Amino acid sequence: MRYAEVKEMYDDPFHLDESSAIQYLRNIFEFHFQNTPYWHAVEKKRGINLDSIFEGNLEETVEKIFNSGFLY
Fold first, then answer.
1. What is the CB-side half-sphere exposure of residue 70 using CA atoms within 13 A?
2. Which residue of 22, 60, 67, 70 has the fewest CB atoms within a 10 Å radius of its CB?
3. What is the per-residue burial (b if ≥16 Cβ within 10 Å, else e) of 35-60?
């Protein structure tokens, strides 16, 4: 995704509200799990549940991303 696309989608991408930021992060993960062979294999191997990661507030979501174990 290019910055111009983000700007078009979110108008001002650096001043997003919390729910928009969470949705944006989820969109990034969904895109890569579907379109990047490495991340597709990681998702399949580890059975990652995006719904459980992307529920809650932004702080909780970021903690779940880093604590999920799929980044290493």
1. 20
2. 67
3. eeeebeeebeeeebeeeebbeeeeee
Quick one: which of 65, 70, 69 has its CA closest to 38?
Answer: 70
Task: In whole angstroms, give the CA distance from residue 13 to residue 66.
Answer: 22
Q: Are 6 and 13 in contact (CB under 8 A)?
A: yes
**Coil vs helix vs strand at 2:** coil
Q: CA distances (Å), 30 to each of 26, 37, 68, in order?
A: 6, 13, 15
- Taking the model in full, what pTM does it have? 0.73
Residues shown for the chain: 72
